[in-house]
Amino acid sequence: MSGDRGDAGRRPFVLGLTGPIGCGKSTVGRWLAELGAVVIDADAVAREVTGPGAPTLPAIRERFGPRVFGPDGALDRAALGRIVFADPAALRDLEAIVHPAVRPRILEALAAAAAAGAPAVVVEAIKLVEGGLAELCDAVWLVTCSPTAQRARLAARGLPPDDVEQRRRAQRGLVRRLRSRASRILDTSGPPETTRRLVEALYRAALAERERDPAGSTATGSPG
To answer: Which pTM value belongs to this model?
Structure first.
């Protein structure tokens, strides 16, 4: 774990949430927030660092051109998404521009939560491992679901079927790559109330373990 999180005796329990789009990371994060955790959403931070006037915009314009910007100069996220989800190299280029701006903000949010005495902080990010954020975490939960559930959830967001499949293809193999880094794998395909009870039990167990051994491992169990 990284030393840039401050004193190990005072810092909160830091939990990473990762997994494919549409599998329930944000729902799990919301439940954890209701239990008292501070949630840092890397996607929300990424939107902040690509907002109007952000220093990342010139590099995005240079790489992708004016076609991903609106008449007002704001980033057209839908247009950019259509490009990067269809082209792995383009997605890597975008991440190389955005991730370096995201990480400092997440570190600042972690420090603020620790200063405020938060018992736990959740870092929610699809690219938790690839973006180097997993090293900040005491435990990593990999959130998954069945393809059927994933498609239904993405469709419920208003995404056309072609866009749903494009996003699923862009993240093909993500679960397989992340399994070895996960402290716990949560399959959210079942009834929400069942998943919520499991999340609450795992969270309370993690905090209890932290209380027993503040300097030790806080992983909540073997992957599975």
So the answer is: 0.84
